[in-house]
Amino acid sequence: MADFEPRIVTFCCNWxxxxxxxxxxxxxxxxxxxxRIIRTMCSARVDPEFILxxxxxxxxxxxxxxxxxxxxxxxxxxxxxRRRIALLRLVLEQYGFDPxxxxxxxxxxxxxxxFQKTVTEFVDVVKxxxxxxxxxxxx
Amino acid sequence: xxxxxxxxxxxxxxxxxxxxxxxxxxxxPNIDVLTYHEVxxxxxxxxxxxxxxxxxxxxxxxSECTGCGDCIAKCPVKNIPDKYEFGLVNRKAIYIPHAQAxxxxxxxxxxxxMKLTKGKCGNCxxxxxxxxxxxxxxxxxxxxxxxxxxxxxxxKVWDAHVATEYGYGxxxxxxxxxEYERMMCASGPDKGHITIPYFKVDPNTKEHPTxxxxxxxxxxxxxxxxxxxxxxxxCCMYATxxxxxxxxxGDLQEDIFFMDIRSYGKExxxxxxxxxxxxxxxxxxxxxxxxxxxxxxxxxxxxxTDDQNNGxxxxxxxxxxxxxxxxPEGAEEFAKTLGIELNQYGFCKTSVYKPLETTRPGIFVTxxxxxxxxxxxxxxxxxxxxxxxxxxxxxxxFEPCAPKKYPAxxxxxxxxxxxxxxxxxxxxxxxxxxxxxEVVEYAKTLPNVVIANESQYACAxxxxxxxxxxxxxxxxxxxxxxxxxxxxxxPLFREAxxxxxxxxxxxxxxxxxxxxxxxxxxxPDAATNKAKDLLRMAIAKAALLEPLxxxxxxxxxxxxxxxxxxxxxxAALDIAAQGYPVHLVEKEKELGGYARNFNFKEDGVxxxxxxxxxxxxxxxxxxxxxxxxxxxxxxxxxxxxFTLRLSDGHDYPVGGVLFAVGATPYKPTEYNYGKDAKxxxxxxxxxxxxAGQLNAQNIxxxxxxxxxxxxxxxxxxVCCASSLRIAIKIKLANPMANVTIFHKDIRTYGFRExxxxxASCLGVRFLRYPVNDDLPAYDGKCVKAFDCTLGETVGVPVxxxxxxxxxAPDRENKENLAKxxxxxxxxxxxxxxxxxxxxxxxxxxxxxxxxxxxxWPKFMDECIAQASGAASRMLTVISKDKLISEGIVAGVxxxxxxxxxxxxxxxxxxxxxxVKQQDGSLKSEVNxxxxxxxxxxxxxxxxxxxxxxxxxxxxxxxxIDACLDYPVGGE
Lengths: 139, 971
Hints:
The structure holds two protein chains of two kinds. Chain A is α/β, with parallel strands linked by helices. Chain A has a single domain, classed as Rossmann fold (3-Layer(aba) Sandwich), CATH 3.40.50. Chain A is built from five helices and four strands. In chain A, helix 3 (about 75-95) links the parallel strand 3 (about 60-65) and strand 4 (about 100-105). Chain B is α/β, with parallel strands linked by helices. Chain B has six domains: about 55-140, Alpha-Beta Plaits (2-Layer Sandwich), CATH 3.30.70.20; about 155-325, FAD/NAD(P)-binding domain (3-Layer(bba) Sandwich), CATH 3.50.50.60; about 420-540, Rossmann fold, CATH 3.40.50; about 560-665 and about 810-880, FAD/NAD(P)-binding domain (3-Layer(bba) Sandwich); about 665-810, FAD/NAD(P)-binding domain (3-Layer(bba) Sandwich), CATH 3.50.50.60; about 890-950, 2-Layer Sandwich (Alpha-Beta Plaits). Chain B contains 24 helices and 52 strands. The longest helix of chain B has 21 residues, at about 375-395. Chains A and B meet through helix 1, strand 2, helix 2 and helix 3 of A and strand 2, helix 13, helix 14, helix 23 and helix 24 of B.
């Protein structure tokens, strides 16, 4: 499994985490290439359906990144995202997915370094978990 | 600002928040940007000025130059110190001032260009494919007719060579703070890898620092020859910021040497604590550095007196001098040209009651030209002076510029997607990592793609024009650009689509620079694959995009100002001056606010007299309706359409709301206040003094009562200056009085430092007690505290104790109002603005503004300036006939809606409601004016009835599928 390169779908909110990802770029912080960002206006727009869709299409991991608690551009959207993800983790576990494949993290617009750290650590976690169980079934 | 790396207290990247503003100015239909121009003469008077300006020859035609930089590469004249980088690097004779320059156009330095000085060379003209170089360019004079003028020439950094004891210029590793800013900056000469300057001379020496020292007040707060007496206001904060950011570059020891730390601004105190506690920055309070010596290995030894008066020496790799702010270069000449006066320090002369006005009517001032100040204050004042300047234009029956005309939008409904793709090299930013031609070829294989091009700079005018043209030529109905980030550049490309007759929402962007080439610089294969994936995802979503129209929202052309103090009244007058009705609401029976308690003079005029005049002006103003003795019940509505519901039962429609509700004095529980007749507040002391009833020979002032402790973390900003003002009055009336001020730091920032000097000269004693939670002790006869300078506890007998009580936020009152319009309160209990730096008087909720002490404790002149700033922001809304809402709002499909109402509870903006239909069923409805387009309700809908335009479920699913349906990196 040494050469396993996970595929990770990352949802970023427009105001904080997407800006934080840009900030990582501005500061030239280097990180693994395994993730692809999909921008939504708020982490609360991330419908659990999107996450399930990503897993069903073969994603090895999904990250949802939002503004810090209390800092949501839309007042409280990130709190709602937090509740939804907490529930979804329970559901994933029941379906045989390691809930660690789904990560929720807060990254502010100024936290390029935190973005880098979050991505790097998550890639390591997913690498350790190995390919998605769906992949194994397909094989 | 574009030369700074980061900005305090948010540590935002400076260039990233400034560049979009510069681009906005450059592209605004009502703004003519005249760079490389000089003002020669100002004739006429307010409302009718004739300004003669000199357009300097730049030898490059700005409308032809694309800023490609080919000419610069071919220029043979090197080694010209680059002023933008403070001489840290060299430039050519032809150059673009910096990467984000607006306009991004080359200019020839005529003093060093070989063609212009010797008639030889001409490489740049030969190289330029556009023929933009014109050696025969001449200086040109022209006359502008304007109604008003705003002077904003900024400041100059103090020349550190004057401080010979610090060895700047002699010792390579002593740098100024602004140079250090460039050294830290990712776009600076060291690409953000802080390098010890001497390493560049001798690569055998140490490359990166392990110890950095910051020396405060370099050029400020001193009587020394060539130094400035005033405090430069921003250095304590920027040094702490630099130390924090340096720490993020690597683990190292950092020491800041200062007299007082002046963190008086919003959330500044918390920032300093973070620096000290989280980042481990060593703070040397009360430590004046006497001199610096250079060691044989070029490290630097600092000699200073520690807080116990011991001589100490310590060695560092780099010493950063926190240089102060001086009046701008040529300020005297500039002032003469404008016909305005300067103050004793060489800055623009203003007064406390008219902080934005120069001495010549119709000419206003903003930013550091009036006094050293930070970015948020400058931004708020900039808005304020534009309100002031605007009033003169309105009076002249000013014809607003005609709005830009666009071609009719192409009908795309039901048509097959035809997508045009542009992939940007961004100079070498993308192209040196991602193989752009390969990505372009790949794009051509994707469904619906009609054309795919590469571009050196997609944002350059030539490419934008080619996008607009291609929309017609290739009958495109979608455009995708793979380049930088939509956060800064989407509006630009959307505009190009609109110019080509395409609805701006039919555009999509793939971020292959900030989120690809910049973060995977050493993996060209993986980065190229990722760029392909990102582009494929963007194209998949683009195919499903629909044209959107923001709905038109009518606007009520009237304002509500809550709070009838100095801030509220000034804001009301500024709004009324431009012809709009204002409802001014004051809960007390009379106008005036807290300033009614003030017993002092500013600029020789008693505050009470000023207040009387101001109230009379407000009451006489036909546009202002004053509502006293009433409170606000509710403010339902949204931007442009609020209803001001008052406790007297009346409703008034308004377009915007300004909170100028002030704050409240802290009511002391300390020192037996209220029971011990000797103990009083500053206001009480001042009225007693004025009435001749302060019968005391020994007076102690105790600072920071109700501020800077474990319960109230912030500094109340105004107490130091107030104590000093009263102490001076006491000493002038009775020179034999013993006046002692017990303080943690004396925070007389800016020109208020004058008070500190005057008080010291008059013999006021200062006793610095430790910065912790304990206040000086008082036993009814004597005030006792540990004197940090003497290193022992000192007792002072007292007949009067004056408490410098801080400003409390009056949180409850603020929260009541905040709930009505959904605006946030900061952790300290003051209103929390949309962006500390760039939108200091706006709330994230549109159409709601804040000014004065409701925002943060501040002085009267600062309240007045900020009031004008908020008035200006208010005018941007209420002066319009209609607003266009963002197109990305939520919408409901009534056929799918079950009326469950989950979405209603979800919306923080009350934009979603259940409405009874004709058949009696309940259906959810979205108010497009209130909807902010977060999409929270959409994700919550169990029946899929809600959709967010521009972020439809099927569009996002298409992105997810495009991301995963292919192996990484495409085929």
